[in-house]
Design a protein that fits this description.
Strand content: 15-25%
Shape: globular
Radius of gyration: 27 Å
Number of helices: 23
Structural class: alpha/beta
């Protein structure tokens, strides 16, 4: 980790290492004022030894989002000053990101029609913005400058301007959203003018030595939009007007190319930062799905970037930098890219939390203290809820034993990691297993539990985390060899025929369908080999990569698939189902099995779907009979996770943490 923990300068700003926490909307500030919750969140990351924290977005005017920090008036200065002071006191440097949403603003938040360079409707908000006048453009440029002046007065070490993700500066820069014919439109020179004028005005307001960073989309990934080539030119011009560093992310919120979901390979957009670095002489930050310090170090060694941006990875583990510096790599709790507690929460107007880190965003109330009295704790069940409860209880000083009836730990996380693009779930299992070993938790695999065994163990506390089992429809009875559950398919326990019908279009059904649809497609290595050697045409390669050896159909009673999948991920799953030629039947009910398949009803129409294998993915039911039988047999007994009610891993981890904290 020699390069990752070497110092670097951004203009006059000296950083102790190359790790940057980029800005991320947290929804912690309902009135726009900095509060204790926000400060505690960032202080924990500063304590973890990150070199630079970029906070924000910080709204330069009313066109921002609810729950964001405000920096458009001097009344916000006291809180901003306290935030900057506390973060710097704990060893990190801090920069404020200046934010204006443009056509991505919502009238629900602002009470006003959004504004933009041109009146191009937004797919994100379903609203059409009003075209800015030249006078209004000048006013917004000045607002950026005055916001930078406030950041400087508050003690921030610099400012970052967001010119990425499809926000206002992007909208001026892109031919997709800028149809102006005046000095701020037309060719690339005209479209760049707004972003460049913002930079110039900030330098005038703060002085030439005050550090200024620009966050750019290295490629818009929008049809007809800017590619890395145009963004390189923009960054070269930014350097000329005094910008001190470029922070490179991926496309816009509207793009159909996934940006930060789990199926994006780790470091998948580093090439965009590399393209910018080749064009400028100022430091460049690489971002997006970099959750591993080993990968981060390699990016620096290979000269693809100068700094590494890790946002969600530092939500997942505030101590990631310190652990990496100390060589404690196995102890790092990696972000898995699920988006459930962060991006999905923001889209639902909730504050950020985290699937893998139950303390994130709740640092004040979820502190861990040594137990007043050590207890003998028995955890029954080695899924996410049980492992987290065992981890936290052991961390607090209890003597913990965990029983798991299977021969591996992980529960449904093991199955969740099987579908394509979902392998990151394995890193959470690895972290929890490693923590149990490190903390001395006695793990007994292949151990079933019944009241007699539990009583004989003589525990002070029992935590029942026995999970759930697949739900089987009432109409399905008897022994049907061609009927299997999605769990059996994902665990590799059963063979699956060529014609497959998946009953149930929730997350499990969709991901199982994708898993089966990709059987028989060529893998990435074969695709790369054939492409490099031009062995097949591009059309043939795409067919080989998306057409497997199974015909998969998903039937769903409701009107849409994947409604239990987070909004930031659902569209990618639906896109892949179409891409891999999965047939989808909604408003369709399975009524009975037939010798050759399954009988379905669509409205008044009844038909038979031919199937060699029918896969059940219609939900799960809690396995909690043991809990009821233990109520009067042990001093304390708790029920957590899917054993309470089948839900997601996020709820399981959080319940496990809270019980471990409570015991």
């Amino acid at each position: 980790m020699g390069l990752l923990f070497s110092p670097i300068a951004i203009g006059t700003l000296e950083l102790k290492n190359r790790l940057v926490m980029p800005a991320m909307h947290l929804h912690f500030c309902p009135d726009g004022f900095v509060n204790d919750r926000l400060i505690r969140f960032y202080v924990e990351r500063a304590k973890g030894e990150v070199g630079l924290i970029i906070v924000g977005g910080c709204g330069v005017d009313e066109f921002s989002y609810s729950g964001m920090i405000k920096i458009n008036d001097d009344c916000y200065l006291p809180g901003l000053t306290r935030l900057a002071t506390e973060v710097k006191r704990h060893g990190a440097r801090i920069v404020a990101q200046l934010f204006q949403a443009g056509r991505y603003a919502s009238s629900r938040d602002t009470g006003r029609q959004p504004v933009a360079p041109s009146p191009i409707p937004s797919k994100l908000t379903r609203e059409t913005p009003r075209e800015l006048t030249l006078t209004e453009i000048e006013d917004i440029i000045d607002r950026f400058a005055q916001a930078a002046r406030r950041a400087q007065a508050a003690g921030f070490d610099g400012v970052e301007v967001i010119a990425s993700a499809g926000y206002l500066i992007c909208q001026f820069l892109s031919p997709v959203t800028n149809k102006r014919t005046d000095e701020f439109g037309g060719d690339l020179t005209g479209r760049m003018k707004f972003g460049l004028e913002v930079a110039r005005r900030i330098k005038l307001a703060t002085g030439p030595d005050y550090p200024l960073i620009y966050r750019v989309s290295g490629h818009e990934f929008m049809p007809g939009g800017n590619t890395n080539q145009e963004i390189r030119v923009f960054c070269q011009e930014l350097e000329k007007v005094g910008v001190n560093a470029i922070n490179v992310t991926g496309g816009w919120h509207e793009t159909t190319v996934p940006q930060i979901t789990m199926n994006l390979p780790r470091g998948g957009f580093v090439y965009l930062a590399q393209g910018i670095k080749e064009a400028v002489g100022i430091p460049v930050v690489a971002c997006n799905r970099i959750n591993d310090p080993v990968l981060a170090e390699q990016i620096l060694i290979d000269g693809q970037a100068d700094l590494i941006g890790i946002a969600r990875g530092l939500i997942a583990d505030p101590e990631l930098p310190r652990k990496a510096r100390q060589g404690r790599l196995r102890e790092i709790r990696k972000c898995i890219g699920c988006n459930q507690g962060c991006l999905d929460a923001i889209f639902a107007q909730q504050s950020v939390h985290c699937l893998v880190n139950a303390q994130a965003g709740k640092e004040e109330e979820r502190t861990l203290k040594a137990a007043n009295q050590g207890k003998r704790v028995l955890v029954i069940g080695g899924g996410p809820a049980g492992m987290e409860a065992a981890r936290v209880a052991a961390l607090r000083g209890h003597q913990v034993t965990l029983w798991e009836q299977a021969n591996v730990l992980g529960g449904q996380l093991v199955l969740a990691a099987v579908p394509p693009g979902r392998a990151e779930f394995t890193s959470l299992v690895d972290f929890l297993v490693g923590q149990l070993e490190r903390l001395g938790v006695e793990v007994v695999l292949g151990q079933s539990a019944d009241p007699k065994k539990v009583v004989s163990f003589r525990p002070d506390v029992v935590v029942v985390a026995t999970g759930a089992k697949p739900l089987v429809p009432e109409w399905l009875s008897g022994n049907h060899e061609h009927v299997v559950t999605a769990w059996e398919v994902l665990s590799g326990q059963v063979p699956v025929g060529r014609r497959v019908v998946v009953i149930g279009g929730g997350a499990v059904g969709c991901e199982t369908a994708l898993y089966l649809a990709q059987k028989g497609t060529i893998d990435p290595a074969a695709f790369h080999f054939l492409a490099m050697n031009r062995a097949e045409s591009w059309e043939t390669l795409m067919l080989l990569a998306t057409r497997g050896n199974k015909q998969v159909t998903v039937i769903e009673m409701g009107k849409a698939l994947g409604l239990d999948i987070g909004s930031s991920t659902r569209w990618t799953v639906l896109q892949d189902l179409h891409r891999y030629h999965v047939r989808v039947l909604t408003n369709t009910r399975a009524e009975a099995l037939t010798p050759g398949g399954v009988k379905i009803r669509r409205g008044d129409v009844v038909e038979e779907l031919a199937a060699d294998t029918v896969v059940l993915a219609v939900g799960a039911q809690a396995e909690n009979a043991l809990f009821a039988r233990l109520q009067t047999l042990v001093p304390e007994v708790y029920l957590i996770g899917d054993a309470v009610k089948p839900r997601k891993a996020l709820e399981a981890i959080h319940e496990g943490f809270l019980i471990g904290q409570q015991i």
